Amino acid sequence: MSERLLSFPLILILTGISGLMMFLPAIDGLMRGDMLVARVFFNSGVLGIMLTLVIGLAMSGPHRRAASNTQNLFSLLLAYLLLPFYLAVPFSECVNNTTYLNVWFEMVSSLTTTGATLYDAPGRIVDTLHLWRALVGWGGGLLIWVSASAVLAPLNLGGFEVTARAEPGQGDTMEGRFERAKPARRLAQAAATLGPVYIGLTGALWIILMMGGERAFVALIHAMSTMATSGISSIGGVQNGASGFAGEFAIFLFLLFALSRLTFSSDLVTTARPGVIHDPEFRLGVLLVLGVPLVLLLRHWIAALDVADVRDPGLWLRSLWGGMFTVLSFLSTAGFQSADWQTARAWSGLGTPGLTLLGLSLMGGGVATTAGGVKLLRVYALYLHGRREVERLVYPSSVGRNTGLGRRIRRQGAYIAWIFFMLFAMSVTVVTALLGLFGQDFEAALILTISGLSTTGPLVQAASETPIRLIELSAGAKIVYAVAMVLGRLETLALIALLNPAVWRD
User: Fold this and answer.
1) Higher pLDDT, 493 or 430
2) Which of 150, 258, 317, 441 is deepest in the core (most CB within 10 A)?
3) What residues contact residue 265 under an 8 Å CB cut-off, 6+ apart?
4) pLDDT over threshold 70, residue 461
5) Taking Cα atoms as reference points, which of 110, 112, 88, 115 lies closest to residue 99?
6) How many CB atoms are located within 10 Å of the residue 496 CB?
7) 107, 82, 83, 108: which is closest to 94 by C-alpha?
8) pTM here?
9) Roughly what angle, to the nearest 10 degrees, separates helices 354-363 and 280-303?
């Protein structure tokens, strides 16, 4: 039975799982006494499961071939583009005074773990729909955890091209000499290995937040949004929560899982030495989390002496914490803001440090995590290459000290990372220009572009003095922004690999 199920396309399996997920909001609506919401989600879930079974029976056969890595990658692209149409069905039925385009946009934002929302007005939607948004985002985070090791890694995409020997979009020729597990079995093994870890970490954070004084429903949404780095909240952000500093500290610790895959799994190694402490991604991320808030803190004495009283140690400690939490949140592309972020901004004398938040979101988190952006491993590869070039300027006859994986990252890895940076810059240019054509000024178009390509939805509220209201965007701008979110989740290099005829050869 499991072998037959694994032989179906990935998008069909995801549709069935989405139907099962709809029963949870149905139960929540039933417990709240909202029979309309409960009935809509229950009927939508049954419809999705029946549709999956019918299509599965139609596609079943004795000689059906299992999907290849490239077909799974294509199914993943279709899932981000088409699956939100189904996920939006119960949402659309429960919110009558909206358009289906807005609901589809909301589901694309949740599934790609971007977290940008059109329904941010208090009381605009009921709590069950907030739960559905967070649940879709949480499922999108688990999807990228599993697909990173089962779909992207075998094709040397998603950041793994920096350390792999083969070309992006193709398997490793050295590994090709040995018999490898089938793509479907790799998907099942990855889901069976990472699923319990993901669920367990979410449950642990949920309990910790409730112990800190947070309401159970809000704690669940914030726990799911933290693990998925979606930044979705039913109360406008963690700064409005009841758990205070204790809740922020717990979320801060769990956001560290977005800096490196080695924090929760050892199935894909990106460092020559074992242990997360030796992982260059984690070390670079910690350096940024400590360094950027310190710069903001020291700026008080450099350029803003009259902003606050320097004799109050509690004030600068709050400023330091607010900076650390917010920096890690935007670096992991979650986009939560600390309750002390306003204190940090006032202390540094910066009204809206939007460029800092944009830069952190662009850099992103670790490879094969739920974080978006260009990934810390690519930044590290360019750093190694730059440091080596400076050494050669001083000592032209010097020999590089790194061997093995370090040499691979410094040479071919840096070259591929630079190509990705150029593709990312081209994507920023094209998307910004398209948003400008649909009526956005340059600042708003740039913020929307970086927000979509880095999957950091809260940037539209935090990166400028005047928050961007997504509900006021034109239909064309919403579609461009949604496509940018899908492009940022799958990355340009993966889409180019799909256009390569070599990867489709049997």
Assistant:
1) 430
2) 258
3) 149, 193, 194, 197
4) yes
5) 88
6) 14
7) 107
8) 0.91
9) 170
